[in-house]
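User: I'm curious whether this sequence folds into something compact or stays loose and floppy. Could you predict its structure so I can see for myself?
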Amino acid sequence: MPHSPQPGAPKSRGRSRTTIVFVIAVVLLVLLALASAGIGQVPTTPAEVAGSVLHRIGLDWGPMPAHPAGEVTLWQVRFPRVVLAMLVGAALATAGALLQGVFANPLAEPGVIGVSAGAAVGAGAVIVFGGAFVAAWSVAAAAFVAGLATTFLVYVLARSNGRTEVVTLVLTGVAINAFAGGLIALLLFVASPAARDQIVFWQLGSLNGATWDSVSVVAPLTAAGLFAAILIAPRLDLLALGESAARHLGVDVERLRRNVIVVVAILATGGVAFTGIILFVGLIVPHLVRMLVGPAHRVLIPLSAVIGAVVLLAADVGARSLVDNADLPLGMLTSLVGGPFFFWLLRRTRARAGGWA
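Assistant: Here's the prediction. I'll summarize afterward.
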């Protein structure tokens, strides 16, 4: 008799593929972290980086940094930068995956709801009016608060009769972004040359000022956002069936959208507050993950976090190694690479499926 097909086989293959992709992403993340921590004026090999970490946790394995300042440089300068890159990359990619899922729009990313523009206005205002007394923490705090406030303003303006339509929300975000762009232009116009340079540099994005203090702020925000995103993921899978079907299955669509916007605001503002504006990570990474493992949000969200960390850490390695004795703006690099890559994704999807749908 002919063998009947086994219904569990495709699911098993899907799980195996997901596991393989996840393991490869984690291995890449570890290798990039070792490489990134070794880049700088104080020569340090990846083996010395690994040895320093192992000795710090009590394992007497591997060589210690040979340079007299190697240990201090690693733990006070490079490791905070590596950890912050991973946290911000994971936060932005997760925020993008959430927005694309709740909007059912492949072009959604944190900038759509005003996070980036609001944060830039807050940071720019402190830089211009704070004068010589402005500190890095005040800029980051202003960016965080302004990003959150702008996001909630977009949400309030988009509500009508107790409901929030996706199109209205996106168009409100476009309008708020345009207004914020005008405010940034005004700040640049009235700023002193030094303040103007600082605003422009902040908008280009950089991990140059990473410290353990900034990591201690971003880490709990990112962890809380990721935990909430994983809890939300099953309802996003139901929402993918359509709003009517999701409501029949017990999903409160309006509450889900409100929760997603809150989580995205926390993730994105926590990320950009200390690094400046970093584009395309939240847009590109979820598309890349869908190509690898499919659209199920239970897998898409945690894997987007890992690959987002990989992407931003790789971008930071490039920013510090492409030009000798120079630290390229990170947002500039992600835009230069992300723009053409997104265009390639668009062409590939149109060629295979006739569009994004």
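Summary: Confidence is low (pLDDT under 50) at residues 1-5. Strands lie at 159-160, 163-164.
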